[in-house]
Each structure stands twice: as C-alpha cells, then as structure tokens.
Amino acid sequence: MAKELRVGMIGYGFMGRAHSNAYKRLNDFFAVQHRPVLKAVCARNAEKAKAFAEIWGYERVETDWRKVVEAPDIDLVDIGSPNDTHYEIALAAAKNGKMVLCEKPLAMNVQQAEEMTKAVEAAGVPNMVWFNYRRVPAIALARQIIDEGRIGQPFHYRATYLQDWTISPDVPQGGAALWRLDASVAGSGVTGDLLAHSIDTAMWLNGPITRVVAKTQTFVKERKHAVTGKVEPVQIDDACMFLAEFANGSMGTFESTRYARGRKNFNTFELNGADGSVYFDLEEPEYLQFFEYKQLQSGKKVESHLTGWRKIHTTNSEHPYMSHYWVPGTCIGYEHTFLNALADFVMGIESGKPAQPDFRNALQTQKVCDAVLESARTGRWTETGVELEAVGKAS
What we know:
By secondary structure, the chain is of the alpha/beta class. Helices cover 33% and strands 27% of the residues. Strand 16 and strand 17 form a beta hairpin.
C-alpha cells in the first residue's frame, strides 16, 4: 500500500495550480511508493482559496500559513506564494519537521537564503526548489550529452529570457496579480524572476559562475500601485544584461527583459565547445539541437564526416523522463516539468539520494542573482561567492 504524502500548499496562483497538478498526477505516471494527499491550501483570500480547494480537491482551507506548518497531518509544505513570504514560512516549516518545497527564487536575498538553507539542513528535512526547466526532457538530454563529453572543452554559454507583458505604462504594480512589479514583494524584477531560471540551468549544464558584470534598466519609472492607487516609483529591473565567467574558463552572456515585443516566454540557451554545441528554445520544447564536430570512434574522438546541426525530437523512450509517458513522436508539455520534478523529489526521499536543486544548490543561484544586481549598481565586475562543490555535478 502506498504511503501517504500529506501536502499543505501555500498559495493558489499560477504556481499553486502547476504544483497541484503534479501532486494529483504523480502516481498516474511514476511508480513511486508515496501517494500525495492534498490536505490544505492556504491563502489570505478565503473565498478564492475555497474555490481553488474545490477545483483541485484540497480537504480544507486555511488563511494563516502557521496553521499549515504546525498541523500534525501535514508532511510537506509547498511554498508557492510571493517571494517575500518564502523566508518566514520555510524557517517555520523546517522547525516543525516538515519537508519543504519552495518556488524560485529561493529568497529575497542571499542572507535570507543562507538562513533558510541552514534551517532545513539543521532540521534534516528533505527540501527542493522548483527550478522546473531542469526537467524539460530536451534540457536533461543536453546535460547527458555534456556529461558524455560530446561538447568537449566549453567556450561560450549564451542565454536569453524574453517577455513583453509589462511594456504598457498603464500596467500597475503590486497586488495579488502584479506583485512581481513591486520590489518590496518580489525583491527584484527580471533578475530574480526570469534570470534565476537561466542561471540555474547554466550552472547545472556548465558549472559554477564565478564573477559577473551587469547592466539593468527600468524603462517605466513610475506606475500606479494596484492596492493604494498612488503613483509610486518602480524599483524593480525591467531588463538585465550581464557577462559571466565560469569556473571552467568559459564565458557567458545573459539577457532578460519584459519589453521584447512579441516574446511571451522566450527562453533559450546555447553552449559551444571544442567538439560540439547544443541549443534549446522553450518555444519548441520537444526539440534539442546538437552540432557534432567530433565523434567517438573506437574510443577516440575523430572529426565527423556528418557535421551539421541535428534537430533531435526528444520523445523516444530512451530520452530523459519519456519512458513514463507516451509513444515516440508524441509530446509532453510545460505542466509535465513540475510532475517530473516532483517525481525526482519523491524518488529522492525513497532512495535516500536527495533530488536537486535543494536549498543549498539554489542558494548558489541566489548568490549569482545578488552579484548581478550589485554589479549593476556599481558598474564593476563582482565576485559571486558561489560554493564550487555546491554546484559541481548536482543532479
């Protein structure tokens, strides 16, 4: 009989839906020993939380998150609420011996992230941060290709993450829907919201980022606040570009903006090495592009007579995660990245080999984000302070 994994969800927004879907479908696709039970959802708006609970099947609604983290019938606290709530909830959940899953970015800043990491480690509770793009099969295949040495010595990493939903000066800041534009709640703009994903993916594929130099821009300087109605200064970054140096000697360029007209969630990366390259575009998530300059023959690398970009359709059963889904040629979607992440977390509990990224691993991404913002403030190259061993070959 499956062991119950009793879930307390904090938040009912976009991520609350994505995570809830993963809990409901886990046992349909993955043969794990635990069965998620949706015990409680918590939000400040009781009416909306009740409607959410009825749709997704949560047994009860709370408006005080403390009741969730202290409840004896909760095993796992999932923090899907705005960034400024992560710190206090995570500390309390760890203190009460709960497993903790947290949306990205881990915290508002490195200081908070360090305290959160110490708390879960001292409590010895399983923990993970929802950097779900690691679980796109094509990105996981890129990691496999890199680990197999098919890229060779890495030279260049470039990433873009572009959106366009804040271009209009009439878009307000703050409130339940637009808290990402309010620095007091979000901590930062595109750096913490979008580039955190790009940075996590980059360090997962190419190793630690050691120093950065950055430039940020806020295009609309004032916006009406959705709650107060007052016109207030905008303090988040609308756009960010930075250069990076990796511990392996390669160079990186990163660009993110919410002012790229026509781009809704344009997330790409390319890694160029001595023997090959990989390229990914989230708008075509079922594909990974791979260029092979040298290939292994009889244990030796030789120049290939079939050089050229391959567009690999990552839907075969031998591709990461795909043996759990459909027949070759049929695609999975965005929601499955959260399902794959949850499956890895649960299998980590059962095997004793914790899934990544845990809080300590996500702390390294927070360090890079903070270094990017500091560099943008000073205009100077800034050391990240990333712990090399905490990035390493984390799975």
